[in-house]
Structures are given as C-alpha cells and as structure tokens.
C-alpha cells in the first residue's frame, strides 16, 4: 500500500509540475500576483509529493519489499541498513527519482526564499524550473518508474553491487546531485532573464548564491567519489579520468568560471552575454553527465547499465531543455548591453583570462570524453583516451590558470597596476620557488615537473596570504588595526581566500603523491615480508571472517619503520580483506589504510595462490602515498570557502543591498 501511495505521489508531482509551469508562466506574462502565487504553491506541492514518493521507495528498501522490481534488483535482506537506504538511489530508477526530488526541491526553495526577487523574473524562473521538472518527471514516470511491481516477486533480492556498499558512496550521490541539479536554478534564472531581456548586475547578484551553493556541494560530491575510488577499488589511485568522473568534472569547471564571471557582471556590469551563456552551459553539462551515465554508451564501475532506448529519451530531454535555452540566448544576445570597458591590465581582464582557460580546459575534457564514442559510432573502431591525453592537454591549462590566480584579486577594477601587483607578490613567489627548489634537491628521485607543481601549490597559498595581508595591512599597521580590518572583511572575501588556499593544498598533495608514491607487489606466505621505502611489512596471519552479507579473508599485516634499531619501530597493524558476496557471486578488495600524518600506507590483499614451497600465499600490494590526505582535504577546504561566502548577507539574494536602500 505504501508503494502504491508513492506511485500516486510521483504522478501527482508530475501534474503539479505541469501546473507550476503554466501558472507561473501566465502569472509572469500577465503580471498576475494571484497566478504567480499559485505557481509557487504548485512548486511546493511538487516537492512535497516527490518527498513522499522518495520516502515510499526508501520504505520499500528498508522493508525488503521484493515485489518492487527496483528493490528486488538492488537489495537483499542481509544487507546492512545503511546500504538498504542507499540502495534507493543506487540504481538507475532510484537515482532518477533522487534527481527529480532535488530538482523540485530547488524549485520550492526559489518559491520560498525568492521573495526579494523581481516578481516577473521569479515567476519565469519558477516556470522554467517546473518545465524541467515536467521533462524529468515524465521520463521517470513513463520510462524509469522505480515503483513498478513484479507479478511474481522473488524470495530474495539480487542485492546492490558490492562496490557501492560503502559509506562514502552512500552519501556521494546526494551531494553530487545537489550540485549537479543545483545548476538548474542558474539555468532557470538565465532563461527568465533572457525572456525579460534584462541581464545586468542585479541578475549576477541573484545568480551568484545559487551558483556558489551548487558548486560547493558538487565539490564535496566529487571529493567523496574520488575518496571512494581511492580506498574501495584497491588500485591505489584517486582519479583516472574515467568518463563518468569527467561527467561531473565538466559542470564543476564551468561553475567555477561562472562564479568569477558573475563577479565582473555584478561589480562592473561587463560580460552579460558570457555570464548568461555560462549559466546555460553549467546545467547543460549536468544533463550531459546524466545522459552519459545512464545511456549505456559508457562502460564504467560508476555508470548505470541501462538500455539505449532510455538513453535516447535522456538525450532528447537534454536537446529540448538546452536547445530552448541556447535558442533563446541566440535570439536575445544581440540586444544585450556589452557593459563597462576595462583595460588589458585589470581585475576584469584577469577574470576573463581565467574564464577562457577554464572554458578551454572544459572543452579538452569534453573532447577526451566524447571522442572514443564518436569514433566508434563513425567507423566501429574502439579507441581509448586515458590519462596521458589529459596530462598533456588539460594540465598545462590548469597550471596557467593557477599561475595567474593570485594576481587577479590584487588588481584594481577597470585599470590595474601590474608593477604594484608584482611588488605585493614577489615575496610569495620567491618563497614558493625556494620551497620547490628545496624539494627538487632533497626529495629523491629528482623530478622537475613535480617540483614545479609544488611551486604552483605554494604560490597559490602564498599569494592568497599576501592578498589577505594587503587587505588587513598586516606587518604595516599596529596589531589592533590589523584585527579591526580582518574583522571588517566581508565573508565573501574570506570565503574566496579559503577556497583559493584549498586549491593550493590540493595541488601540493596531487603533485607530491603522483610523483613520489612508492608501490610494490609480492606473493607472501604467513611470515613473509615486503620492504617498501623505510617500511617493512610482515604478513603475520590470514583468517576467515563472516560479515553481515559476505565472507572474507582478512590479512594481518604488521608494519614497522626502520630507524636503526634491530627490529625497527612499530607503526601500525593493517587488516586488508578480500570479500566474497554469495548473493551476487562477486569478490571485492577492502583496502587497509594506515594514516601517517599527511601520508597513507595503503595495503591490499589479493587472492590465494600456491607459494614457492607449496605453502599458501597471497598477493599483497603495498603503497606509500605521500601527502595524499591533502588531495581530499584541499577540495573540502574549497567547499568550506564556498559555505563561508554563502553566509555573507550580500550574497543572500542581495539582502544587504535592499536593506541599505530601504534605510536610505
């Protein structure tokens, strides 16, 4: 009965989204507060209905209701509760329901928190959000309904893919979708502004908080996915330029460009066309990601394996939504005001250059992702584009963007002074260069490119601190004055500082870990040893354990560090596992991590084999991953910076500006 209620709520949400679209559009066109208000009510109703439908699906998973096809295919009675709940979005059908829930949730948020928006713009934005809801809800109801019953339900389900039964991946999709789908609000605002023909500084103020929220949540989602790939897949890495990884990375890059472009539009009234184009493109890439993951054109552990027919439907939805937005842009673009002029050396120019580089980097990722698909469709030849391509094309663009990043905030608007910026940043550059040279001289083996990466990371952090020192007059004014200035800085400035420093931390971790990681693999019997760098790892025992829904061989690895003593210094005990899931007949590796400050000792145990003397042996792979923790800490610091910026009253729908105007 609960499932039927959920199915009814899903159809009701579709009907309410249709009402939301029509009422809001007509209300905006006729300037009718009554109709626009009814549209907002429909937006709230659609979200509530979707929440009920999603709760019904979760109820079916928790209760192991195998009469529901989605539950039978993705759950099992022995599965832990967390993964039963996560199974609700662990399939194609369930993930589409989560997508729709987030989409209607953002529409409801605009309806509730957008009271300070111009009435017509708000009405048109809610109408466009409703139209997107109609497209995706219709697809979910008629092509991917998660509430479908089975006429002959099985006694047990097939369970969720064991690789997905992990805490990081359980919370990864909600964060990822909150970011992905968050760009739908930016898309809707862009369409609404184009309909009204007003893309100005006010538009930028309305768009920035939604972009910042979506970008920050997407940052957390991508980081969780990278961390899951790092310690769950057992291959020792954290990013492989997998097409599905790229699908989430492209809207992140465009979102970063949009954040900076909106600042120029807000402060100087420049780049209106480019800003609205990025607003349309951000959600366009999100929809492209949904298509790639669910169309069946990709083979990936991250992808949902579905039939091509539903992929064509998703492609059609993307074509309709993005096509409408860009067609409207093409019609309105000639009439958009070009905005204020600025000199080649200015903060505006630095941001424009930043945008060009980020857009080129996105195009590079798009080409590397789609080229194998296009090539195979044209001549049937299967080709692969992997890390070497992206390292040669994407990395230089990213280095260039990061090299100019610290200078941008120190340049004046309209016309800057390059020599003044050099005087303010020379010490940061000198310190970064010295630290890079020290790393090149001390760390073995010597690697010039990795040392350059460290210079870039230290340069980002040092340049950020130099900007903060300039704003607060640190080392140039009394401490009381510095504290007063620091306390008076807007949260948006603090957020940008934190985010840029987080990027520097990530670059340091990625450069050091990629260049100087150590790895080895050896078949060990109990009592066997592996030496890796300064560490000695001994396989002391291997036992069998019973998990909640799996059987496992667990190795006990004693790790010691050579320090001159006879036996070495004890570091930790690692317990890697090799798990077998009887329900699906799948085997996975459970990595053992031994954190050492910023480093990780990373141990994986493989399958049993015959040893040299006929004794049983297990393939043990060991890695020393230096500074790897910075790879995951850096993006989280960036997301924290976004959250701090979002707490700035000036970014919450221009509340501060309106209040100031009211007092005046």
TrEMBL record:
It is a multi-pass membrane protein. InterPro entries: CcmF_C, Cyt_c_assembly, Cyt_c_biogenesis, Cyt_c_biogenesis_CcmF. Signal peptide: none annotated. The chain crosses the membrane at residues 6-29, 41-62, 96-114, 121-142, 175-195, 207-229, 249-265, 272-292, 312-331, 352-374, 394-413, 425-443, 449-469, 493-512, 627-647. It is found in: Cell inner membrane. Residues 315-649 form the Cytochrome c-type biogenesis protein CcmF C-terminal domain. The keyword Ligase does not apply. The keyword Nucleotide-binding does not apply. Keywords: Cell inner membrane, Cell membrane, Cytochrome c-type biogenesis, Lyase, Membrane, Transmembrane, Transmembrane helix. One of its GO terms (molecular function) is lyase activity. Belongs to the CcmF/CycK/Ccl1/NrfE/CcsA family. Residues 89-295 form the Cytochrome c assembly protein domain. This is Heme lyase CcmF/NrfE family subunit. Required for the biogenesis of c-type cytochromes. Possible subunit of a heme lyase.
